[in-house]
Design goal:
The protein is 80% helix and 0% strand. By secondary structure, the protein is mostly helical. The two termini are 44 Å apart.
């Protein structure tokens, strides 16, 4: 069962990546909670909640020794295949937890009055604090009582632990929102935490027995051996843990007592949230270090151990530097963007700066403590790290008390210096123990973490002269952070890659670029044969879910730029000359980028073009925010129209080929589902814009730019989720060269698509005016747009599904002939004043045109195969762009021309419907001319 050190490194990388990703998603869910919580509870109440988790941290560290024994000795026993000893160790730990947990709960119950006095809890909140503390501590002890999760970490299963933690933490965040909306307050937040613990325990128990079937815990006849690690190793770990959590939270532990400010703990919790989240995120990668170093130490691989220690320290410093090097100089702007002006911005920004620097240096001690624990010498942590930090803290506290500087800022600054000094001391000591030269360590580790601070400081100096930086609103601060953050990240990563990266690290970067499509042509593969899919065990179902999310996001973003979209409601100088360009620019951008996006997806898969789409969309949203702040309409409309249009074209053309390849038997249905999501995204923009103020707790409607930015972020989130979740079948073979512009079938399809799209757009623009002119149809005319939208969505699903069964050519025959017949019948229904018949004919025609849109990707796949479907379908989307841009002005000019000939307005609209019938008959003839050869059928 023992692996060699290469397998250990492989598992370490896998577990570290899973831990970081899981922790990142977990922390993202926590970023939005404090502003939402403060809408429903006061800052003092939030301080009570933060205090409860401070107490929970100390109680958790009182069981830290037990958890450390589980992880460390499970790794050792597992390396030698001694599963039975793991079961005995778990049995001893359960008995110890029962005894210790009973003692802890009893001690808490007795000591609550002392806690009230220490943290200055008001009498009216004391009973609530009692319930919160006992509830969250009981939930934590319940997880420790059945310790399968800790043992999974010891046997190198941190990835599974990360998945369980992510699911349960997301559930907790949702429950907190629901319970707060129900008015349950702090008690509801405690209930959400308890339910998270129960679900985590259930999932872990189920997963563990799938990993080690037949494993059992020994509760009886244990003897002395299973208790020895808890009493020796665990005892030292226990003392270290209690003192470490005090030192890590010393600001909050001392703030209420020293400053006599009931809100000090809450302000510190808010100010330290982002630095603590960043260090927790990247330090989560070291969760696997203890088991990996134990594994290497057990096997005597000292050189590999030293290499792992240096590499983990270097990468940990680089990641923390990249995040905190930007937070530190822009701390006040970050607090403004997150919390608005509900907290003292200047004080909170300074506290964030202190926390960023202190936590960064302290984070470098994670590999050190992992090494001390792995070599069964946790006492070194106590003497070399904890004792010096306690001494420094005592000296610093005496200094500030003697000088009378008992303010919160003075206390936080003193503790930052204490944390830095003790951390550097233990790092030097560990390097000496490992035989690593101090110059070598700081040469390899320090520069890569210090460079980001230099870049961040220079960036702050470059913009600090801007007079409006201190008066930014929350949305403006968010836009400034996003814009500067992108520039800072690009510059920092470029400098690190150019000057500080090693050859092996550059090879990793080149490998990542190769996975994005930058690789030799002879290495590119494609294909989607069903036999190959069966051999590789490819799962089809992530593709439609991810593609549906992408198309909903694309529809939502497109709706903002439509002629009646939110962006057209902006009111500012010089808007009118550029307002009418918005929709056309977006459609033009989509048409231009769709063909390129499809080719890119054929070559490299859907993820690279989808990620590029996210970048374009984000740039467009920033242009809206900055344009609104600067009152520059020229920046808003072309910026959003071009940038977002290019992004939407890339996303639209990249997601569809994944569906065509994953579901060769029901391509029409899958395309209809995705395009129905596109229509649903358009339809949901209005209701979501109205709901956003209620979601964020603002009773007044947001400004237009802020609403557009919020909806745009939602669409961007859907695109990003689809980018990471979408999968394509494993491919084989080489990409054929298809020059679609040389094929007559391509031009016939292009003309069919443009004609059906033109007929649909024309009918949608003519139906409502005709209906308003009919007697007793005013109410029906108002609801017609929504009714036709539903008919369009239903038609995409129904006719897409039908094309899988009756064939694409037959489906398009029905689309063109049925649409032509209905367009011919509509004028007669309008002249007769028959409202139900007119509405029914409109809905039927629109559903047919929607079905034609859904059947086109499958039709193209049938004709050209799926290996180049992205290239073909992306090029065909230019037909939609041409129709969307050209038809509205053509309809307007044709109406003017016909009324100039003497026709009434109603009769002019009827004549244009007959013209649409003629266009559809031309499309029917094109469909008859399309020849589907057997060689070009779908693979």
């Amino acid at each position: 069962m023992a692996d060699d050190h290469r397998n250990a490194h492989t598992r370490l990388s896998r577990n570290a990546i899973a831990s970081v990703v899981g922790q990142m998603i977990y922390l993202v869910t926590r970023v939005g909670l404090p502003p939402f919580i403060l809408l429903h509870v006061s800052l003092q109440d939030y301080s009570i909640w933060a205090t409860c988790f401070l107490v929970l941290g100390y109680i958790g560290m009182s069981t830290f020794g037990i958890a450390g024994v589980y992880i460390r000795y499970s790794a050792e026993y597992y390396a030698h295949g001694r599963l039975d000893e793991i079961g005995r160790m778990m049995g001893a730990g359960i008995w110890l937890t029962l005894a210790l947990g009973s003692l802890i709960l009893g001690a808490l119950w007795i000591s609550m009055p002392w806690l009230y006095a220490w943290f200055h809890v008001e009498p009216g909140m004391q009973e609530t604090m009692r319930i919160l503390v006992l509830g969250v501590v009981g939930a934590m002890l319940l997880e420790l009582l059945i310790p399968y999760g800790y043992v999974m970490g010891g046997i190198h299963r941190n990835a599974e632990n990360a998945v369980i933690s992510l699911v349960c933490s997301t559930l907790e965040a949702v429950l907190i929102v629901v319970f707060l909306l129900q008015g349950w307050g702090l008690v509801g937040m405690m209930a959400a935490y308890v339910l998270r613990a129960v679900f985590a325990l259930t999932f872990t128990l189920t997963w563990f027995h799938r990993l080690l079937p037949g494993f059992r815990i020994h509760l009886w006849g244990l003897g002395k051996a299973p208790w020895r690690p808890f009493l020796q190793y665990g005892g030292v770990m226990q003392v270290n843990g209690l003192l470490s959590v005090f030192l890590n939270t010393s600001e909050r532990a001392l703030a209420g007592y020293v400053t006599h400010n009931p809100g000090a703990v809450g302000l510190l919790d808010i100010s330290q949230k982002f630095p603590m989240m960043a260090t927790q995120l990247f330090n989560s990668a070291t969760n696997s270090l203890l088991s990996a170093i134990t594994h290497l130490h057990t096997l005597g691989e000292r050189e590999e151990l030293v290499r792992l220690y240096l590499r983990s320290s270097r990468y940990l410093n680089a990641l923390n530097g990249l995040a905190l090097g930007f937070m530190a100089p822009f701390s006040a702007v970050l607090i403004t963007a997150w919390m608005g002006h509900s907290v003292p911005i200047a004080d909170a920004g300074t506290l964030l700066l202190y926390a960023a620097v202190g936590f960064h240096v302290h984070a470098l001690t994670a590999p050190v403590t992992s090494y001390f624990q792995a070599v069964n010498s946790p006492a070194r942590t106590f003497w070399a790290f904890i004792v010096p930090q306690i001494v420094l803290l005592a000296i610093g506290l005496a200094w500030v008390m003697w000088r009378g500087q008992t303010g919160l800022l003075s206390l936080a600054g003193m503790i930052m210096l204490t944390r830095i000094g003790s951390s550097l001391g233990v790092i030097v000591y560990a390097n000496a123990q490992l035989g690593i030269g101090q110059l070598r360590f700081f040469r390899e580790v320090a520069p890569i973490g210090a460079l980001p601070y230099l870049v961040g400081y220079l960036a702050y100096q470059a913009v600090s002269g801007w007079a409006g930086l201190a008066e930014l609103t929350r949305w403006e601060a968010l836009g400034v952070l996003a814009l500067l953050g992108v520039a800072y990240s690009a510059v920092t990563l470029g400098l690190v890659f150019a000057f500080l990266s090693r050859p092996d690290e550059r090879q990793i970067v080149y490998g990542a670029l190769a996975r994005l499509g930058w690789k030799p042509r002879d290495e590119r593969r494609a294909g989607d044969s069903p036999s190959h899919l069966a051999q590789t065990g490819f799962s089809h179902w992530p593709a439609p879910v991810a593609a549906l999310g992408v198309f909903v996001g694309v529809g939502l973003l497109y709706a903002l730029a439509m002629p009646d979209g939110l962006l057209t409601n902006l009111r500012m100088p010089t808007v009118e000359p550029v307002r009418e360009w918005m929709s056309g620019l977006t459609v033009l951008g989509m048409g231009l980028s769709a063909g390129f996006g499809g080719r890119w997806a054929d070559r490299a898969g859907p993820r690279p073009p989808l990620f590029a789409a996210c970048v374009f969309v984000f740039a467009g949203l920033l242009s809206v925010l900055l344009g609104a702040h600067l009152q520059t309409a020229v920046l808003i409309f072309p910026g959003y129209g071009i940038a977002v249009g290019l992004g939407l074209g890339l996303g639209y053309a990249a997601a569809m080929p994944a569906l065509m390849r994953a579901f060769p038997a029901c391509r029409g249905l899958m395309a209809g589902l995705a395009l129905a999501g596109f229509g649903g995204g358009i339809a949901s923009a209005g209701p979501l814009a109205d709901a956003i103020p209620r979601i964020v707790g603002n009773p007044q409607p947001l400004g237009t730019a802020e609403t557009v930015f919020a909806l745009g972020l939602l669409g961007l989130a859907l695109l990003l989720a689809g980018c990471f979740a979408i999968r394509v079948p494993p491919s084989e073979g080489t990409l054929p060269t298809i020059r679609e512009w040389r094929s007559p079938r391509f031009y016939l399809l292009w003309l069919m698509f443009s004609l059906s799209t033109a007929a649909g757009i024309g009918l949608s623009s003519l139906a409502a005016p005709i209906l308003r002119g009919m007697p007793d149809a005013a109410g029906t005319a108002a609801a017609l747009v929504g009714f036709l939208g539903l008919a369009d969505l239903g038609g995409r699903l129904a006719w897409g599904w039908a094309s899988d069964h009756i064939g694409r050519k037959s489906a398009y025959t029905l689309v063109f002939l049925g649409g032509a017949a209905l367009c011919m019948a509509l004028p007669f229904a309008g002249l007769a004043g028959n409202v139900p018949v007119f509405v029914a004919c409109c809905a039927a025609a629109v559903s047919l045109f929607g079905g034609g849109l859904a059947a086109l990707p499958a039709y193209a796949a049938d004709l050209f195969g799926t290996l180049r479907i992205g290239q073909v379908y992306g090029s065909l989307l230019t037909a939609w762009a041409v129709a969307a841009v050209a038809v509205p002005p053509l309809v307007s000019r044709a109406a003017t021309w016909l009324t100039g000939l003497g026709l009434a307005e109603a009769h002019a609209r009827f004549a244009m419907l007959w013209m649409a019938s003629g266009l559809l008959l031309i499309g029917f003839l094109c469909n008859l001319l399309v020849s589907q050869t057997e060689e070009a059928s779908a693979s």
